[in-house]
Every structure is written in structure tokens, then in C-alpha cells.
Amino acid sequence: MKGISIMQLKRNTAIAAACVAGTFAVAAYAQAQPAAAPAPAPAPAPAAPPSTAINLPYGITISGHAEVGFTLNADDPANNINFGQLFTDQADSIRVNQTMLNIERDLDPKNADWQWGFKFTGMFGSDSRITHFYGELDRVTHGTYQWDVVEADGQMHVPWIGGGTDVKLGQYPTPLGAEVIDATGNTFYTHSYIFNYGLPFKHTGVLSTTHVTDMIDIWAGLDTGSNNSIGQKGMVNNWFPKFLGGFGINGLLGGNLTILGLAHLGPEQPRFIEFNGGGQAAIPNANRDFRQFYDIVTTYKINDNWTSTLELNYARDDLAHATAEGAAGYVSWAVTDLWTVSLRGEVYRDDQGFFVFDPTSGLDAVNAARGLAPNTIYGVGKHTYGELTLGASFKPSGDMGYMTVRPEIRYDNAWGGPFKAFGAGNKFACAQAAASCLGTQNDQFTFSMDVIFGF
User: Fold this and answer.
1) In the chain, is it the N or the C terminus that has fewer CB atoms within a 10 Å radius of its CB?
2) Which are the contacts of 226, defined by CB distance < 8 A and separation ≥ 6?
3) pLDDT at position 48
4) Whether the predicted pLDDT of 454 surpasses 80
5) Using CA atoms, how far apart are residues 173 and 57, in angstroms rounded to an integer?
6) Cis-peptide into 374, omega within 30 deg
7) What confidence tens digit (pLDDT) does each residue in 76-106 have?
8) Is the dihedral of CA 47, 51, 52, 57 positive or negative?
9) How do residues 216-236 score in pLDDT, each as one tens digit?
């Protein structure tokens, strides 16, 4: 494979820089407009509220949604992979990404007394093949559509320091990052590189959030690791505890600015790896060398119609001597009560080609993480990735539930690596071995759309 020319490198660098520069140019324009009265600064706006929740005694509610979507790739890659889009990786196909059911009793943030609560979230769909807790429902089915427990925990509010402490015990999605597993909590259908490759998805353990003041929160917890469960099959790396901690700053600039900085640290590599052809080998220092994730999300409500978010991310695996870093900017404009237009620009550098991959079948992602065979995943080595996504969200209201339609167009670009990342073109090589299915170009255009039905 020939290397990338200097001219190509300059062109691709300019395009990636334009992704982020364009995002903040829009934010700067919006900030120059007359500001509305101050209002609390939210996290990235959910796609739709669960307005049809069933209310039960003791404050328990039941809600859910189903998400169906498709992605069209202008290049029609021979391996049918939209590389870099882990959850929407299948080109020119329709997917039921997630069917999700929530049973919960929320803690009331306005109540300073002792409280108890819980949450259970179950999911079925193609997203589950990526988000699995290891050793938990990851062998029920072997195909694209799988079962997963997204959350199963007990919760308590303890009134002591300041505004008290909220505690979770059990299994829960990671609080790191600007995007989440639940489709209704995201601005776009496709995910950022940071969400796909730069963060854990879930944890098993205990997590506390202490509201020291109205402005300052302190986060601290211990867990079994990134997506790890409990027991011999669920624990990839023995019982060595991992640490999650950081801070939150709320209510700055008249209540319009929030900052959340969190880190997750601990050894994550499996103790051994099985080979596809048979046999296995121990991984030295698997219980000593850390995998580290650091993430800061800053959200600023510019006015009633405009919201901007900036995410900075750094990941490191000590055993693999691998690092990655990224930055993503989001801007959303609420055009009307029904329509919102959003832009995301991102640059993500996988310095050694360790973090960015795509599974070639249903169990490949979880098998590779657990060190089990078969563990065939598709990677293209070290690269810097840029993506620019322009999308809209249409949310018609109704008495029987809610619906959200999110069309988007996305441009991905990659440079600085040994191979081309996108548009695999040799169908015979792809059929023989994923490792031989190399890309033919440095960029790709995709058009995607999903529909979320709430119930």
C-alpha cells in the first residue's frame, strides 16, 4: 500500500481542522446574538422525553423506546463496513439498534432527606453486541441482535455534607463523556470516535456523587473495570479494583455553564488470549499495567435556542504502550419546538492503532476484549480521524407516545497512517480474511437516519 503524499496530508489536515473550526465558528456567531434570560445549563438535549411512562405506586415508573435506523455509504465498501462508526458500522442496511425497557424509581434532587431508588434497563438490538457486560448474556445469541443489561442498580441519597451524597451500587453506564448508550439522550444517530473508542461503556461497582455545594460535585467510585461484570467469566482481569473519580462544576455564568471532568483508571487487559487457530498465551503484567481514560465535558447554554458542548478526551493503555486523544465540539439550534439542527466536529488521534477497530461478526468485539477466540476485528493501524456531522431532529408530539426522526449527513477523513481507512474495494480479499480487506481511500460520505418510537 503506498503512503499518503504530502499534498494529500495537507488537504486532509485542512479538512479535519475545518471540522472543529466550523463548529466553533457557528457557536461564536450564535453567542453574538442577543442573549435570553439566564437558565440552567443542561447536558446535551435528549432526543425526546419519555412522556408516556407508566406510573406505579412508590414513585416507580416504566418506560421504553425502540430505535430503527439505516446508513448509506456513497462508496459501497466491499466489506459493508462504515469504518469508524462502531454502532452504525453496517453500510447500506437497516438495523433495529435498540429496544429498551426502563423500570426505575428516581432520586428527587430537590429532596435533601434520606431517599432510596433503583433502575433496571434491559436492551435488545444490534447495539448490544458492543455494549455487553463481559460474561453476562454475551453467549445467548451469536448474531447481530443480542440481549444486554444496560443498568441494574440500587440507589440512595445520604444527607450529610452540603447537599448530601447520591450512591449507586450495582451495574450502571459510565458517567464519562458527552454521549450515552440510550439513544434518546443523544443529539445524533451516529456516535463520535470518542464515545466509540475513547471511553468505557459501563461499570459494575459502587459510585458516589457528593454535592459539596450547589456549585461543586465530587465523584468517587470503585468498580470491576470497563464493561466488566463479576464472577470468573465476567472478570477479565481478576479482582483488581478500578477507580472512577473527578469533579463537576455547576451553575457558572448565571447558571448557563457546566463542567464535568472524570477519570477511570485500572488494569483492563485479559489475563490470557486464545488464538483463532487453537491454544492460548498468558499476557504478562495484565494485573499491573493500567488503562487510563480522562474526559472533560463543558456545556454552555448560549441562549434559549443555542447550546454548545466541548469534549476533550485522552486514553492510554500502559501494557500496549498505546495512547489516543480527541476533541469534539457540538452546537445545537432549536429552530422551532419541533425542529433542532445540530453540528458536530471532531478530531481523534489513535497514535498506535490500538483503539479504533470494527468487529467483523456478532461476538468479535466482546471476544477480543475478553481474550477469547474467535476474535477477528478489522483495524487499519495508527491514524488521525476527523469527522463532521450535520443533522436535524424532528419531534412531533402525540397522545399515544413520542417519536423522533433524526436524519444526518457525515463526512469522515483519516490521515497519517500506514493504510487507507475507508472504502474497502476488493470483495475477494474481504471474503477470504478481514486482515486483507484494506481500504481504498482516505475519506467517506455517509447518510444516516433513525426513528425513535417511545412507549
Assistant:
1) N
2) 174, 200, 201, 202, 203, 242, 264, 268, 291, 293
3) 43
4) yes
5) 26
6) yes
7) 888 888 999 999 999 999 999 999 999 999 9
8) positive
9) 999 999 999 998 888 766 566
Residue 365, C-beta contacts closer than 8 angstroms, at least 6 positions apart: 129, 130, 132, 359, 377
Place of cell 470483495: 427
Q: Which one-letter amino acid corresponds to residue 41? A: A
Extended beta strands in 132-213, E state: 146-158, 165-173, 202-211
> Beta strand 257-266 with 291-301: parallel, antiparallel or unpaired?
antiparallel
Give ∠ CA 429-430-436 in degrees, rounded to 5. 60
Report pLDDT for 14.
45
DSSP 8-state assignment for residue 89: -
At position 186, the amino acid (one-letter code) is N
Pairing verdict, β 383-394 and 377-378: unpaired
DSSP-derived secondary structure for 353-414: S-S--EESSTTHHHHHHHTPSP--EE---SEEEEEEEEEEEE----TT--EEEEEEEEEEEE
- Cell numbers of 42, please? 443542561
Band the pLDDT of 363: cuts 50, 70, 90. confident
Bridge partners, residue 404, by sequence:
452
3-state class (DSSP) for residue 191: coil
Topology of the domain covering 6-454: Porin (2.40.160)
